[in-house]
Structure formats: C-alpha cells, structure tokens
Amino acid sequence: MSHNADAIVHELHVEFESMLSYVKDSQTATADQVERGLFRRLLSLGARLMLLFFALRTAAAVRDEHRLANGEMLPYQAEHRRQYFSIFGKLAFWRPYFYRPGVGGRSPLDQELALGADCYSDLVRDLVEYLGVGSTYAKVADCFSRVLGLELSTQAISDLVAEDACDVEAFYAQQPPPPLAGEAALLIIQADGKGVPMVRTTPAERKVRLAKGAKPSRKKEAVVTGLYTLAPHPRTPAEVVASLFHPERVPVALASPRTGPQHKRLWATMAGKDAALGRLAGQVAQREGPHIQQRVALPDGAEALQDRVQQHFPTFTLVLDFIHADEKLWDVANSLFGETAAQRMPWVEAQSLELLSGQVPQVVTELRRRASLAETTTPQKTTLTQVANYFERNTAFMHYDQYLAHGWPIASGVIEGACRHLVKDRCELSGMRWTKDGVENLLRLRAVAENDDWVAYRHFFQQQRHQRLYGVSRTAPDTLENQALADPEPPLQPRPASRAFIMPTLVPHHSAQPQKQAA
User: Fold this and answer.
1) Per-residue model confidence as pLDDT tens digits over 305-337
2) Is the pLDDT reported for residue 179 higher than 90?
3) 3-state SS string for 160-221
C-alpha cells in the first residue's frame, strides 16, 4: 500500500476510535443526539473511505503510455486534479493524465471509474433526481443541506434533470414487449390533456383584479397518454348505475373478481397531441399480437383529441368516457332543479340508465323537449341544448350497452389519475412556472418513476453515457453490495506506481458550487 494510502488508513483508524469513544462517553445523551452525531461522523468516515478508494486506484494506474482507439500512443504528462461531489461530501483526487500536442489529452482512470463529464457522483444524481420528480427543486436542495450538509443550487438540480432525461426515449424504444403470460385480451389506450403554468416570455399586464374567467397564469397543454391491457369484465347497465348512485347497496361479491391494468405505461409531453399519439402508436405496435382480441380507445370528450385518436388508431373503437357524459347530466339537473334539490339524483340516475342501455337518441329527444317548453328559462334552454348537442355529436362513441356486454372499460380513470399525479401534483405546486424544456425533462423522468422503471433506466443511462464519453460499452459489474457480501477481503491490490501522485483531499463544504468538469 502506498504512503498516501497508509496515511488515509491511519486517519480512518483514528476516526473510528473517535466514534467508539463518542458512543462510550454519551451516557447522558439522548438517542436522538447520539444518532445525529453518529450520522455526521459516518459521513466523514465515508468521505475518507472514498479518498482511500481513489488513492488505491490512482496508485495502481499505469503511467507508461496510453493507447487510443486508433492505435496512437499518448505519453504520460502529469497528475491532474479532479473534483468528485459524493454523497459523503466534496472530494478531490489526482489521476494520471496523458497528452500529445495536436491530439489532445486523456485520463484513462476516468473511464475505468465510469465517471461522468461533470463532478457529480451517480448516487448524488440518482437521489437528487428521484426526489426532484416528486418535490420542488428548492425542497430537494433544502433536504440535501439539512440531512447531508451538502449545498446544491436549484439550477444545478435542474441541469442534472435535463442531462439525465436525455435517454428516456431511447430507453423505452429498446425495451422488449411485456411477457405474454402477463398480458390480457383487451388493448386499451387513453389520452387527455392537462394545463401546465408556463414562464411568460413577456411581462404580463399588471391588473388590480382579474376579469371573470381570466386565468392568473398562462398555461400550455401537456398531453398525457396511457397504454395497458385488461381482462374483459362484463357488467349490466343496472350494475353500473347501482355502483355509481347506491354503492352501499352493492354486495361485495356481486361480480367475479376483476383484474386491474396489466403492464401499464404512462407518458406526458409538451410536444403536442400528434407527437404524443405518434409515440403511443409505436408503443401499441409493440404490444400487438394474437393475444389481443379487442382494442379500445378512451380519450376525453375534446373533439380535436378524438379526431387525432381516430387518425392514429383506426383499428380501435373509440369510447366516450361515461363519467364525462354523466357530468353533463348533472349540469342539466343543477340547471333544472337547483344544486340542492332532492329531485336531481333520481333524474340523473334515470337518464344515466338510459345512456348505459344504449338509448342515447331518446335522452337527446328528452333534453330537446324540455328546452322547448315555455316555462324553461333561457339559461336552462342553453344548458339543455349544449348537452343535447354534445350527446348527439358523440352518439357514435356512446354504445355503452355493447361496451358493457363485451366487458370493456367505459371510464378513463387511469388517464384522469395520471393527469393528476403525473402532471398536476408536481407541475402545479404553489408558485410553479415552467419553461417548455424544463417541464419536458421533468415529465420524462417522472414517467420513468411512475412506470416503476427507475432502476432499469439509471443503468441504461449510465451505459449510454459511458458510450458517448469513452466510445466503448461499459461492462456491467455486479452490485457493490453483492460484491462486498461475497468477498470480505479488500478487492484492490494496487501495483506500485511508476511516479508519485498527489494526496487526495476533502473539499470544504463551503466551497463554491462545482462546475462542469474540464477534460
């Protein structure tokens, strides 16, 4: 072991003895005080262990010559310093640098250690981004500061999210289709839009009070899509009405157990409807096969989205979300009877049963009849006519009696939930304003997390980054935890260095925010 490594090992022994003394001398301390003190000392111990790791690898590094992929040789020049922002703190170490004028320089140890282009460790990136897809960047920075004593700016977090979201599309493009054993007979697609508050490119006019219907911020639509398979679950119109209006009367074992969505995949993008549906079409193509018996599309009632769904998915049967249709009936009931009248529920229940029984024309006729009555007020006429027109336009998508008999879903609960938890719950937090690129990058990583692909994507991203930086594929080792459990002996046997190297150092936490790592 080198002299520098010996010095670090000595410091580690001293620090560990200090930890033992701390515990032994804490006879009057509370459990919380000791736990917090130990945590800080363990972070310091981890930092010195990382320094030992870098010292051993630097000592073992070859310093004769470095051969490039084209066969050209670079002579050793000097030891170059590199920063490493780890979960234990900011470190600095030196590694051999090879250089030839007119060719450039390389640090082969960077490739061996699978380092990125900047100073941030993969563990730091992983934690920052996983927390960042669920909470504000300011909260993430505060968490790192309070828990780990590490200072991260919100801009640095935003940059990491942008950099590490670059391979999400490629990740999903190379994924194989789900195993057939876990698939079901119905192939279901859903689509909807959700507004995201955007940063204004020009200052908004200052107003003392907003006009009726005016929005406090400018929004741009994120198009959310969902894809999954589902086992058929036939129901009757009466059963659906009972579940909506009298759930307390529905026996628990009224129907056979129902399986949920299989291999659900969610996505959200700011690139527009055609881009979102075009990507969805590619995902659908992967899921097609003889096991798929029927295909159902459940967009919302927006005509523009319905038209595009039909263009992109001509083999799918488009179904109008029944919950949207039912809400229209409640609008009519509120207008006719008032929002607190007891007559509302029986009326809506009766009309809902008509819709579910395939009697859409009859419901439209009833709405128009009421609109023509002399006692009907102008606001009521307007609501009745609008809802009648809506049902009439969507009649082709409202054959609910047939859909229920086939066992199809008739509500877009999956995509409604996705609009909420994939977009709204993160992008519409208090004071949120986004740039198009900023929210697009966030939504990509958020979809990875929601689809439970986080670990697989991190591995894929690291492989792709390694290929971009070093021009070679990265050998995927076993996890560090498994290596440590399998081999308790130190895995590193350093070769004697041909030249001396500089002692790795801890960088004080109050140092400036680390920048992109220079070559």
Assistant:
1) 999 999 999 999 999 999 999 999 999 999 999
2) yes
3) HHHHHCCCHHHHHHHCCCCCHHHCCCEEEEEEEEEEEEECCCCCCCCCCCCCCCCCCCCEEE
Residue of 234, 222, 265 lying closest to 438 (CA atoms): 222
pTM, entire model: 0.86
Lookup: tokens for 39: 């945590």
Helices (H), 252-321: 273-287, 303-312
Whole-number average pLDDT of the chain: 89
- CA–CA gap between residue 193 and residue 220 (Å, rounded): 10
Determine contact, residues 119/83, Cβ cutoff 8 Å. Answer: yes
Convert 251-282 to b/e letters by CB count within 10 Å (16 or more is b).
eeeeeeeeeebbebbbbbbbeebeebbebbee
> What is the rounded CA–CA span in Å between residue 183 and residue 178?
7
Distances from the Cα of 231 to the Cαs of 65, 111, 259, 377, in angstroms?
A: 63, 48, 7, 47
Virtual CA dihedral for 446, 450, 456, 458, nearest 10 degrees?
A: 20
User: Is residue 225 within 8 Å of residue 277, measured between CB atoms?
Assistant: yes
Collapse the DSSP code of 431 into the 3-class scheme (helix H, G, I; strand E, B; otherwise coil) and give the result: coil
Give me 208's structure tokens.
């003392």
Element (H, E) at 318: strand 317-318
In the block, which residue shows the tokens 């909470």?
A: 135
Model confidence at 484: pLDDT above 80: no
- For residues 119-127, average pLDDT: 97
Would you say 184 and 230 are in contact if contact means Cβ atoms under 8 Å apart?
yes
Q: What is the pLDDT of residues 346-381, one digit of tens each?
A: 999 999 999 999 999 999 999 999 999 999 999 999
